[in-house]
Amino acid sequence: MSTPAPPELRNRIWLINPRFQLKYTGMLVAVVALVMLVLGVVIGKTANTAARYAQIATLQAEKAMKESQVNSQLTRESVLMSGNPELLKVVEEGLSETDRQAEANLQAVQNNRAEIEMQRKLVLGVLIFAGVVLTLVLTVMGVFITRRVVGPVHKMKRLLRRVGTGRLVVTERLRRGDELEDLFDTFMQMTWSLKALQTGRIATLDATIHKAEESGASPEVLDGLRVLRAQMVLGLSKRLTRTSII
Question: Angle 85-164/18-82 helices, nearest 10 degrees?
Fold first, then answer.
């Protein structure tokens, strides 16, 4: 038979009732995870839409630059065919400026697309990290909160078994912060009522024993009454054995 864990060790057990605590902790985590999933889908769609528009803008800028380059080449060829050097110089300066502007526009669009893509990845990473952290935090909080409910229930079950054996003295109390204080107070009032009733019965039994002694009752009857009284008194005595506090 395994040796029971000491009270100070059992007091640190988080999963007093694993089935109950994990069930409702899992429900809490599942609801929050569902909300985060919906938010993640909405944010992800928004980020993907922005990235798609940036890609379209980049393709349009690349297309416009290619068309500009083709038009510039055709213009140069036409001017060259005219044989006018001054016109060629002026046109060349204008076309070069147009090409530089087209390249600058393309570079700006590409930079914007890269920035949007980086922001999209950052948002996705933050969502995943926040989801993991929130899940862990909710799990710990769920177990902690349910422990504040399960602990008193577990203690009252154990004390009810003691009371059921006739041991009516209860010296334990709930921990600070535990729930179900009203229910525990009702249980304590029940034990006090039972102790008062037991005390009254002992007083009645004492009177009966006294009358039996005066009437000369047989020793067997008196011994039986005294044994019954000892059993009843035992339930009102404080046990010195330590009980686990959970």
Answer: 180
Minimal CA–CA distance to 233: which of 163, 187, 166, 162? 166
Residue at 171: amino acid letter? T
109 plus 32 within the same structural domain: yes
Question: Domain end: 126, 148, 164, which one?
Answer: 164
Query: Token pair for residue 147?
Result: 């422990």
With tokens 């993991």, the residue in question is: 132
| Residue 152 shares a structural domain with residue 76 | yes
Q: Which structural domain, as residue segments, surrounds residue 104?
A: 1-164
CB 243 within 8 A of CB 7: yes
pLDDT in tens, 86-96: 766 776 777 77
- Rounded to 10 degrees, the C-alpha dihedral 178/182/183/186 comes to 130
Assess whether 200 and 144 both reside in one domain: no
Q: Please give the model's pTM, rounded to 2 decimal places.
A: 0.56
Among 23, 39, 18, 28, smallest CA distance to 136 is for 28
Tell me how far apart the alpha carbons of residues 238 and 72 are, in angstroms, rounded to a whole number: 105
Residue indicated by tokens 């083709």: 70
Report pLDDT digits (tens) over 94-151.
777 777 887 787 788 778 878 888 888 888 888 888 888 988 998 888 888 888 888 8
